[in-house]
Task: structure prediction
Amino acid sequence: MKKYSVFALLVVSLLVCSVAQGAPPIFKEKKLFGPIPYNSISIAAGFLDGTDLNYLTEHLDNWAKARNGSDTFEELTPAPYGRLSYERQLTPNHFFKGSASMSYINTSSVGNYVAVFPDTNYALDIARTLKVYLMTFEAGFSYCFVPPEPQRFSPYVGAGFAAVVPMVRLDTKSTTSDGAPFSNPGENVSQNSFQAGLHMEFGMTYYITNRYAAGLEGKYQMAQSKFNIHGGNFDLKYTGFILSLNLIYYL
Result:
C-alpha cells in the first residue's frame, strides 16, 4: 500500500510540473527593440557660445562714465559645459532624455570712477569680475533616423523644456589712488533665480558595441534671467549654441 502511495504522489508531482511548465509566465517578459538595451546613461563635455551679458556690462560702463571714469569689460569667450544624461528608448526610433548640465560664464573689467560722499570724494580704481554658474535641468524627446545597432551611425534630432538656475556673482575690488583697499559693499552683488527655457538639438551617434557608443551633438538653448543693481533690472541672455562630445553606456 505504501508503495502505491509513493507512486501516486510521484505521478501527481510530474503532472503538476508539466502544467506549470506549459502555463504562461506570471511576470511579463521584457521586450527589447533591438540589440541595444533601451536604457542608457551618458556624460558630455563641450562649450557654450553666444551668451549675451551686454545689457549689464554696458550699464556698468555708463555708470562709471557718469562718475568721470570708465569700466570696460572683456569680450565673452566660449564657456565650458558639462552634462549628465539618462535616456530611454520608447520605440525603435523615439527616445526620452532627461539631463542635468552646468556651464561657467565669466568676464572681467578694469576701470575707475569718482565716488562722491558728503564730506569728501574718492578717486577709485576698480576691478570687476562677473561670473555666472548656469545649472540646467532638461527633459525632452528625440528621434533617431536609423534604429540603434552595433557598428552603425545614427543621426537624430530632438527638442524639450528646461528649468534654468543661473547663479550670478558680481565681485568688485576697489582701491584708492594710493593703492589702499576701499570698502564698497554696494558693488558686490550675488543673485540666484529660477527660469524656464527651451532647447533644440541635433547630433550623430556611433554605436561601438551593444553597450558603448559615442557621439557629437549640437544644441541651441534659449534662456535668460534678470540682474538687479543700481536700482535697475538688466537682462542676462544665455541663449546660445552648445557643441559637445558624448560618451554613452547602455545599461
